[in-house]
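Long-time lurker, first post. I've been practising inverse folding by hand and with some scripts of my own, and I keep getting stuck on stretches where the structure tokens seem ambiguous. Below is the full token string for one chain I'm working on. Before anyone asks, I'm not after the true native sequence, just a reasonable design that respects the backbone. If someone could post their per-position residues I'd love to compare against what I wrote down in my notebook.
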């Protein structure tokens, strides 16, 4: 079993509010595809497989978003006699921080809105997260894991330079 190197969430969060990950309208789709699943994973404690199985069906509910799994997805820890909910609420930070606050760039709903705007595709598959190289294909679990690792590594490399 591969070992996971130690990492510090504060270092990663500081990295997420800096350049080149902010402002989101100037950030590359590649970096936005790293940032959005990371914030979603951090905000929801969902596994990579659960993040990959998210559907493009997203419902805005006040400041929050309701996310849905693909119908055929079975959660790894699900018991057939006691199925888990097929949707969950992604809570916005807008109630906790104002838009000019230093922590506003860490809002998972804000990042997801930008991602959905930037990753629009006429031939979009049903999966929420798409391959950056070929947006007609969903992002694989391996790719999501890779993006999360790359983001953590980049944050720690930037921190060690300071």
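-- Answer (accepted) --
I ran through it position by position. Result:
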């Amino acid at each position: 079993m591969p070992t996971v190197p130690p990492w510090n969430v504060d270092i990663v969060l500081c990295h997420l509010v800096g350049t080149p990950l902010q402002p989101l309208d100037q950030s590359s789709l590649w970096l936005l595809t790293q940032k959005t699943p990371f914030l979603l994973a951090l905000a929801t404690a969902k596994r990579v497989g659960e993040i990959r199985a998210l559907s493009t069906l997203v419902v805005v509910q006040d400041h929050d978003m309701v996310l849905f799994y693909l119908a055929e997805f079975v959660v790894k820890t699900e018991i057939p006699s006691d199925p888990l909910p097929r949707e969950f609420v992604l809570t916005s930070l807008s109630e906790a921080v104002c838009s000019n606050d230093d922590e506003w760039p860490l809002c998972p709903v804000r990042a997801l809105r930008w991602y959905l705007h930037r990753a629009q595709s006429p031939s979009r598959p049903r999966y929420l997260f798409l391959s950056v190289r070929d947006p007609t294909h969903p992002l694989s679990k391996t790719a999501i894991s890779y993006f999360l690792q790359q983001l953590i590594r980049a944050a720690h490399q930037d921190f060690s330079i300071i």
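A couple of notes from the structure itself: Residues 9-157 form one domain. The first strand starts at residue 54 and ends at 61. Happy to go over any region you disagree with.
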